[in-house]
Every structure is written in structure tokens, then in C-alpha cells.
Specification:
Length: 358
């Protein structure tokens, strides 16, 4: 696999429509005889687990399993488009394999945000298995959203749940009303509003300044995302176990391209996808534990919620799930069926996920 820099065969242009998306695609070099080279792209830096232990792990395994018959040119860090562009890029085959993150695509893949709803699961591996089941061929999310857009998921990743970062201990949802709280958007916005907080949209690189200047009172972030932003320097406390939801991502290929590939190549990608989902969720768990340790070394205190405290949070966010399902139904989408399917898939995933991996 080759990871390409920003000047490698890439024309700089704005992405506005499928025609322009295709025009932005890098020129493909002629492959060696018998080798097919896939263009793979995403929005993550190569140091992020979704890159390093997600798509890179996947493509390395595909290359091994096909004996080098499938090769890859990899464009990370939004070189071929922003996170919201990859639905069009992949469906139009301007990119062969790309990241599709439902939290950034609520207008295009609204049902697929079901995996990010609060209070469903606090475990990355369990959630990834459940979302993987629903996005596979025959699954509700594949049938309702991915297949109609000509997409097939290859593997799923779940960034572990969001926690609340503050400058004082928070143990009860009754402490949130009135707090200006940084949110990534989507269902987290809905969760914060339900809890009485005011969500504020702030990009990741700006969270340090916003917290240090008092622009916001609190932050919602996964611990592993808090480390590079040095939140231990501007926040003193964080929850551990608040059921605020997570962040799901998938990597997808166009259905048309999938059907063009030889069966042996499809089998290799299926196997590599299953292995990558397991590998990535384990790494996410390790990164979260390491992030907590790093933040604690920087002076941050994590407040582990007791079972009784977690139940109060669960009770407080339960209406978010019901409201989400009702909103989907009002928009003509099967929200209740999606939530029921997700809950059932989570139950099956808990039975299948080894206790040590939870």
C-alpha cells in the first residue's frame, strides 16, 4: 500500500457535485500485470486509530489475502474530500473505498445514527458488532440506507463513548441545566438539550481555547480525543460512565465495484473486514484506557459513576431514544424498527463478545 501526500497526482478543486468529485480524483498509475489498485481515502490523519488500525490494517490484510493481486493508493487527512463527501465519492466510484461516518451524515443516513444514541452501550466492541450486523447485507441499515445509495460496508469502528469534561465534579444529570457544552452535533446535541445543557458547535482544534476562555462550561469528547487537545490543562474533571453516546464510522465500497471483483477478492475483503472490526474495537479500548492515564497524569480527576448514579443518567437520556425514533417516523423512516433492531443486535453482541474484550 502507498500512502500519498497532498501533491501526489491530486488536483486541487472544490467538491460540489458528482462530476466535480470525479474531477478531483487523483490520476491512477497503470498497475503491474494482474494487479488491481484501489484508491482509498478518508478524513483521518495517519496517527488516528481509524486510519492506523482501521483502513491501513484492512488494506494490509486484503493485500496479504489476495497475494498482492489487490493493491492500494491511500489518501488520508481529507486529501480527496471532507468527511461529508465520501458518500458521493464512493457511490460515484471517484474513490474505490472511503469512510462513511453517519454522525456527519444525518441528512443522508439518518437511521444509521442509531448506534450513537445515548444509553444503549458503553462498550466499543459490543456496539461495533451490533452496527456491523445491521449494516451487512440483509441488515436493516444496509437495506434502508446503504444499499439504496449503492454502498456496501466493509468494516465498522466505534469511537468509545463521550464523557463530560468540566472544571468541577459532575455525578448527576441534574447538574447539567444551564451549562454551555461543546458538542460534535447530531444526537449528542439532542442528548444535551434533553439534559438541560446548551450544545455549542466547536471544532476539535478550537476546544482548548474555548474552555480556557470560558466560552463554554463543559466539553463532550471521548477521552482518546481529549489527549491531543490537552484538555487536562483547561479542565479538572471528567465523568467515567456517563451514557452520552458514541461515534460510529464505517468504510464502504460501491456495490457496483464490489460485483465487478472476482469472488476470491470479495471473500478476502469480507474476511479482512471482520478481522479489522475486531482489531479496531480492541485498539479503541486500549487507547481509551491509555488516554485516561495520560489525562490523570496531567492532573485531571475522573469521577467513576456508581451503579445508582449511572441509572439516574440512564433514566434521564431514555427519552432521547424514544424522541429520535418518533422523529424518524415523522420523517417517513422506520425509526422504531431501527431502534428495536439495534437493541436486539446489542443483546446478541453482548452474548458473543468475550468478557475480557468488554
Amino acid at each position: 500500500m502507498r500512502t500519498l501526500g497532498k501533491g501526489a497526482g491530486l488536483t486541487t478543486c472544490l467538491v460540489a457535485a458528482v462530476a466535480l468529485l470525479t474531477a478531483c480524483t487523483p490520476a491512477r498509475e497503470a498497475p503491474p500485470d494482474g494487479v488491481r489498485t484501489l484508491v482509498v481515502a478518508d478524513s483521518y490523519p495517519v496517527t488516528h486509530p481509524a486510519s492506523r488500525d482501521g483502513i491501513v490494517h484492512f488494506t494490509d490484510r486484503v493485500r496479504e489475502l489476495t497475494g498482492g493481486a489487490l493493491d492500494v493508493e491511500y489518501y488520508p487527512s481529507e486529501q480527496l474530500g471532507k468527511s461529508t463527501d465520501y458518500v458521493k465519492l464512493v457511490a460515484s466510484r471517484a474513490v474505490d473505498v472511503g469512510v462513511v461516518s453517519p454522525p456527519y451524515l444525518s441528512d443522508k443516513l439518518p437511521l444509521s445514527n442509531v448506534g450513537d444514541l445515548p444509553g444503549l452501550s458503553t462498550d466499543s466492541c459490543t456496539t461495533a458488532r451490533a452496527v456491523g450486523e445491521l449494516t451487512r447485507e440483509g441488515g436493516l441499515l444496509h437495506r434502508e440506507e446503504f444499499a439504496p445509495r449503492g454502498l456496501r460496508t466493509l468494516f465498522v469502528g466505534v469511537v468509545p463513548q463521550y464523557e463530560l469534561f468540566t472544571n468541577g465534579p459532575v455525578t448527576d444529570p441534574a447538574q447539567l441545566p444551564g451549562l454551555l457544552t461543546r458538542s460534535p452535533g447530531g444526537v449528542v446535541d439532542q442528548t444535551l438539550r434533553t439534559l438541560g445543557a446548551t450544545p455549542v458547535s466547536i471544532a476539535g482544534p478550537e476546544v482548548y481555547e474555548a474552555m480556557s476562555r470560558g466560552t463554554v462550561d463543559a466539553m463532550t469528547l471521548p477521552p482518546m480525543s481529549a489527549v491531543p487537545f490537552r484538555l487536562d490543562e483547561v479542565a479538572s474533571h471528567a465523568t467515567e460512565g456517563a451514557p452520552l453516546g458514541g461515534f460510529t464510522l464505517t468504510f464502504a465500497i460501491s456495490e457496483a465495484l464490489w460485483r465487478e471483483l472476482p469472488e476470491a477478492h470479495r471473500d478476502a475483503m469480507t474476511r479482512a473486514g471482520e478481522e479489522t472490526s475486531r482489531h479496531l474495537c480492541a485498539v479503541m479500548g486500549e487507547e481509551t484506557a491509555q488516554a485516561r492515564s495520560t489525562l490523570e497524569d496531567g492532573g485531571m480527576t475522573f469521577t467513576s459513576l456508581t451503579a445508582a448514579q449511572q441509572q439516574r443518567w440512564q433514566d434521564a437520556v431514555a427519552s432521547v431514544r424514544a424522541d429520535w425514533a418518533a422523529d424518524m417516523e415523522a420523517r417517513g423512516r422506520p425509526g422504531r424498527a431501527a431502534l428495536d433492531a439495534m437493541e436486539a443486535a446489542l443483546d446478541r453482541a453482548r452474548d458473543e463478545t468475550p468478557e475480557a474484550a468488554r
